[in-house]
Design a protein that fits this description.
Helix content: over 70%
Protein name: Phage holin family protein
Keywords: Membrane, Transmembrane, Transmembrane helix
Shape: rod-shaped
Number of domains: 2
Order of helices and strands: HHH
Largest sheet: none
Number of helices: 3
Number of strands: 0
Distance between the termini: 32 Å
Strand content: under 5%
Organism: Herbidospora galbida
InterPro entries: MFS_trans_sf, Phage_holin_3_6
Structural class: mainly alpha
Pfam families: Phage_holin_3_6
């Protein structure tokens, strides 16, 4: 069977081919969007983990500060100040994890930029095809 030349094809065939091409293009765009969203969700998960670590470190800070206060008020001896130093170290750890988590969260972009760009290119392509 011979394939009709481009000039010999009917309007229906051309429209059908265009529909198939647009359908394929749409499926590819959806797949690209899914991939981009997965990547951004992974970044958000890592940032959430850092926030979780900061929360735990903050809880430890409260625990050790409480112990330090109890020991300091109870007998004003070295054990209380040692607990205070440990609590301060946990506070520093909490602050550091919070800053890292906040910075990672700022890197998260919920908009699938590449998909948006290619959709704009596709729209220009379709407009040019129409003209």
């Amino acid at each position: 069977m011979t394939v009709p030349r481009r000039e010999d094809r009917s309007l229906g065939e051309l429209v059908g081919e265009l529909g198939g091409d647009l359908s394929k293009l749409f499926r590819q765009e959806v797949e690209l969007a899914k991939t981009e969203i997965r990547e951004e969700a992974s970044k958000a998960g890592k940032a959430a983990g850092m926030f979780g670590g900061a929360g735990f470190a903050g809880w430890m800070t409260a625990l050790f500060l409480s112990l330090a206060l109890v020991w300091a008020l109870d007998s004003v001896i070295d054990a209380g100040w040692a607990a205070f130093i440990v609590a301060v170290l946990w506070g520093v750890a909490a602050a550091a994890m919070f800053v890292v988590g906040r910075n990672k969260m700022r890197e998260v972009n919920p908009v699938p930029e590449q998909t948006v760009q290619t959709l704009k290119e596709d729209a220009r392509w379709a407009r040019d095809l129409k003209n």
